[in-house]
């Protein structure tokens, strides 16, 4: 699918009420930041917490988690500080790790 705003091809393209058309997550979030900075920061904060909580569920340090997600330690730090947003593939990988861990942990 193609983003109707930046024209980039991405599989992370979906309908956005802000654009009234289909756009990529990047465009959606940057428009949201302009239109509703409060809501934008709430979403960023939720994502930040999600990364951190997932890592704590896995009982891993940032240094241990980084290679499992195929990113640098600095990236993990940035995610948890809300400086950078993890890509969809990183989030999916993290989700799989958490699922595998809860299976191991649960009887
Ligand atoms: Zn776009």
Structure notes:
This protein folds into two domains: 35 residues, no CATH class; 69 residues, 434 Repressor (Amino-terminal Domain). It is 63% helix and 7% strand. It contains five helices and two strands; from the N terminus they run ββααααα. The chain is elongated. The model has no long low-confidence stretch (mean pLDDT 92). The protein binds zinc ion. The site of zinc ion (ZN) has 8 residues, from β2 and α1.
Identify the notable features of this structure and list them briefly:
binds zinc ion; 434 Repressor (Amino-terminal Domain); 107 residues; 7% strand; 63% helix; 2 strands; elongated; mainly alpha
The CATH homologous superfamily of the largest domain corresponds to lambda repressor-like DNA-binding domains
β-sheet strand percentage: 5-15%
Radius of gyration: 16 Å
Rounded mean pLDDT score: 92
**CATH domain class of the largest domain:** Mainly Alpha
Strand order of the largest sheet: 1-2
Q: How large is the count of helical segments? A: 5
Report the end-to-end length measured between terminal Cα atoms.
41 Å
CATH topology of the largest domain: 434 Repressor (Amino-terminal Domain)
Query: Can you tell me the CATH architecture of the largest domain?
Result: Orthogonal Bundle
Taken together, the total number of domains comes to 2
The total strand number stands at 2
Query: What structural class should be given to the helix and strand makeup?
Result: mainly alpha
How does the major sheet shape up? Answer: 2 strands, antiparallel
Helix and strand succession? EEHHHHH
